[in-house]
Specification:
Blueprint: H1 4-22, H2 32-51, H3 53-81, H4 102-105, H5 108-122, H6 125-141, H7 145-157, H8 161-164, H9 175-187, H10 191-201, H11 208-230, H12 250-286, H13 298-312, H14 320-332, H15 335-344, H16 352-361, H17 368-381, H18 386-414
Helix pairs in contact: 1-18, 2-11, 2-18, 3-5, 5-10, 5-12, 6-7, 7-9, 9-11, 9-18, 10-11, 11-18, 13-14, 14-15, 16-18, 17-18
């Protein structure tokens, strides 16, 4: 049903696109047509992936595969950690509390995905998928081969690993092309993180993995369009490199894929401990500020500051500050912290539409920590462009924020039909 929330969503689409013009690096080269093409592709993908019977059937199959991978990972963690890893506990469970332990039951799934992803790359299955997506992006947005490959691979591999596929060509990219790679990397989440978040959110949000995969797919074209609009530059005439497996055997692929995933798990665990602790510490400090009502906290501050963004996304009025708080946590901490706060909300605390909008708007690596990681990794890959990478870092974060806000808005608009 079309109502006031729908109208706010339409206004939000116009406002978010308008902000791209406001923060455009060269307004003389700003092309509204690029943004409108990105918006049209984004809306079409959102409609097809959430409404078309063939897409729903496909996602049912994907969900079954993900459940199988999660079950296999649980078998491994149960063997290693016993009931801490998901095996039946040796005691009678009470009515309160949960036996889910993030470190032992969610993080290890990344190891499974790391090994499987490397294996699928070695078998050329992922290579063919990336080639197909790269071909589509290069035709739709007239981007060069290296940019098309990196952006299409980002959904599967992540913001650090995807540019590695075209590392020899990175020094030849224009400023605008480098910006596209940065924005896209901060606008989506990798397959391993999807599985982690899906396992974490499964008890609260049905088909969580499907929503996360859909979110990353739908956001990608808008991320490319926003990047092209905000830092206009002609594409270089570079062709994509031939993609190939760096592994000599399937066993080597699984081994090195798993070892790389181990580093990722350690990084995620360490960052989560520090960020969650830092948020708690800041909240403790904020309680010292005199107040007349509820104690001041980061949730309250972010909720007030970013409530207008939630308003523009067409969220129900009663949930504006809650969504604003989640968006703030995602940017300042990371998506895992934000989603953990979302699933910890009491049942019914947010309207279903608000949960839907938040689920899609939070689905990205767009946070301060990821900007630092991206600057560090790209500076290593292409040291001659380190000044450009640093200069574009926060602009890329803002563009990624706009891209995911547009995804949340589009999903909210579609929920009216």
């Amino acid at each position: 049903m079309l109502n006031e929330e729908f109208g706010r969503g339409l206004l939000g689409v116009a406002a978010f696109l308008g902000l791209a013009w406001v923060f455009c690096e060269n307004r003389a080269g700003f092309r509204l047509r690029t943004l409108l093409i990105g918006l049209a592709i984004q809306a079409l993908l959102a409609f097809v992936l959430t409404r078309a019977p063939v897409a729903l059937t496909f996602f049912k199959g994907v969900t079954h595969v993900v459940d199988s991978v999660q079950s296999a990972a649980t078998a491994g963690t149960s063997f290693m950690f016993g009931y801490l890893g998901g095996a039946p506990p040796p005691y009678v469970r009470g009515q309160t509390g949960s036996t889910f332990i993030f470190a032992f039951q969610a993080l290890p799934a990344i190891l499974m995905v790391g090994g499987l992803s490397a294996l699928l790359w070695h078998w050329k299955i992922l290579i063919w998928i990336v080639r197909g997506a790269a071909w589509l992006f290069s035709r739709a947005f007239q981007v060069s081969g290296p940019v098309a490959v990196s952006t299409s691979a980002c959904i599967f591999l992540g913001m650090v690993e995807a540019p590695l596929l075209v590392r020899p060509l990175l020094p030849k990219l224009t400023r605008g092309e480098l910006f596209i790679i940065m924005v896209d990397g901060l606008s989506v989440v990798a397959g391993s993180t999807m599985l982690l978040l899906g396992a974490m959110m499964a008890t609260r949000i049905p088909d969580a993995f499907t929503h996360l995969l859909t979110g990353s797919i739908v956001t990608t074209p808008m991320a490319i369009a926003l990047a092209k609009a905000m830092v206009p530059s002609p594409p270089s005439p570079l062709q994509a490199m031939e993609l190939s497996s760096p592994y000599r055997s399937s066993l080597e692929a699984m081994t090195f894929g798993t070892l790389d995933a181990v580093k990722m798990v350690i990084n995620i665990a360490g960052l989560l401990i520090v960020f969650v602790s830092a948020i708690a510490l800041v909240d403790k400090g904020l309680t010292l500020i005199p107040h007349s009502g509820a104690p001041i906290s980061l949730n309250l501050v972010f909720g007030k500051l970013l409530a207008p963004v939630a308003w523009l996304m067409g969220a129900p009025m009663k949930d504006l500050e809650q969504i604003g708080a989640l968006l703030g946590l995602k940017v300042m901490a990371n998506e895992v912290v934000a989603y953990s706060h979302l699933i910890e909300l009491p049942a019914g605390a947010m309207a279903p539409k608000s949960e839907l909008i938040a689920t899609y708007a939070l689905c990205s690596f767009g946070n301060l920590g990821s900007v630092a990681i991206m600057i560090g990794s790209l500076s290593t890959m292409v040291p001659e462009k380190v000044a450009e990478v640093v200069d574009l870092g926060f602009r890329a974060l803002f563009a990624a924020f706009l891209a995911t806000c547009l995804t949340g808005t589009i999903m909210g608009l579609l929920s009216a039909f």
